[in-house]
Amino acid sequence: MRAKVRSFSATDLDVAMLDAVARYHGLTKSGTIVGLVRREFWRLFPAGTGEIRPAAGARVKS
User: Fold this and answer.
1) Other Cβ atoms closer than 10 A to 22
2) Quick check: is 20 in a domain?
3) Based on the number of CB atoms within 10 Å of its own CB, is 18 exposed (0-12), middle (13-18) or buried (19 or more)?
4) In sequence order, what are the residues at sequence separation of 6 or more whose Cβ sits closer than 8 angstroms to the Cβ of residue 15?
5) What pLDDT sits at residue 22?
6) What is the DSSP string of 1-62?
7) Which residues span the domain enclosing 32?
8) What does pLDDT average to in each consecutive run of 10 residues of the chain (62 residues)?
9) Reported pTM
10) Residue 56's pLDDT is what?
């Protein structure tokens, strides 16, 4: 059996779920991860952080 090389830790089931979500949205697995991280970041920090600011003209919820 050939070793699987990944730059992150994930079970085969995790990778299969990621692949299914990526296919559903028509994105790559990498693009899907980035989209999920962005969505979660802005949910947690709607006004941004000290280093990461919302884009100019973005509607910011207080």
Assistant:
1) 17
2) yes
3) middle
4) 6, 29
5) 96
6) -PPPP-SS---HHHHHHHHHHHHHHT--HHHHHHHHHHHHHHHH-TT--SS--PPTT-----
7) 12-44
8) 75 94 95 94 92 87 71
9) 0.72
10) 87
